[in-house]
Amino acid sequence: MNNPSFPGIFSLRGQVALITGGGTGIGRAIAGAMHAAGAHVVLAGRREAELAAAAAELGERASIAVHDVTELDAAPALVARITRETGPVTCLVNNAGINMKKPAVETTSPEFEAMLRTHVLGSHALTRAVAPGMIERKSGSVLFIASMASLFGIPGVIAYTAAKSAYVGMVKCYSTELSPHGVRVNAIAPGWIETAMSRKAMEGDPARRQKIIGRTPMAKFGAPADIGWAAVYLASPAASFVTGVTLPVDGGASIGF
């Protein structure tokens, strides 16, 4: 962009953003914000009906791709199809994930492996699939959606913590390797966000909800759009000199007492 100025500096016009887990929750909010900023968004996930409903709500410049991130060998074909049908992927958002609440000593090796396959290996497979094209074009952005579990200990989520902590290391390594080629790699670490999943987790446990609010300096849950607009910033020309960063969007939870 020549002589960028506000608001164009935050525009994603001309970009093709592939967002895993894009049909619901935080992924849907990221898709909505990127779409509003001008990108064509490709919502990827396992449940076609949810993806189709989200894309229909967004309208033009929104399409879907039924894809299971744990099918690692399918990543290159997915990226090739999107490139053929929509255009080269200029922004990848590794958002798809699963969670499991269980004491560490009760977490089995298969459960741990499933968590790592979904988050770590799944995101690596897709990043590896989009990176060559980005390197060739000397431009691109990859975002990982990390977690508060990447930053401090949370009981009962050992496998999830390991997977989300791996994202922080992956961002550092990927950014070191790819940034010299014009490809930026960053992460967002959401705090406690008001989603259907979080509401379900809090059902019947008002003490847990109050504990979260009590340790968050802004004394509230965030909105999914808070993560969406942070993703727009990191993918936009406004962040052209930002790489290797894990950005907490958490109402101060990671630094408050």
TrEMBL record:
The alphabetized UniProt keywords are: Membrane, Transmembrane, Transmembrane helix
Query: Which GO MF terms are attached to this record?
Result: oxidoreductase activity, acting on the CH-OH group of donors, NAD or NADP as acceptor
UniProt key word Transmembrane helix: yes
Per the database record, which ranges form the Ketoreductase domain?
15-195
**Stored InterPro entries:** KR_dom, NAD(P)-bd_dom_sf, SDR_fam
What protein does this entry describe?
3-oxoacyl-ACP reductase
Its BP terms in the Gene Ontology are: fatty acid elongation
What family does this belong to?
Answer: Belongs to the short-chain dehydrogenases/reductases (SDR) family.
Protein origin, superkingdom: Bacteria
Q: Which residues form a coiled coil?
A: none
Q: Which organism is it from?
A: Termitidicoccus mucosus
* Membrane-crossing residue ranges in chain numbering: 142-163
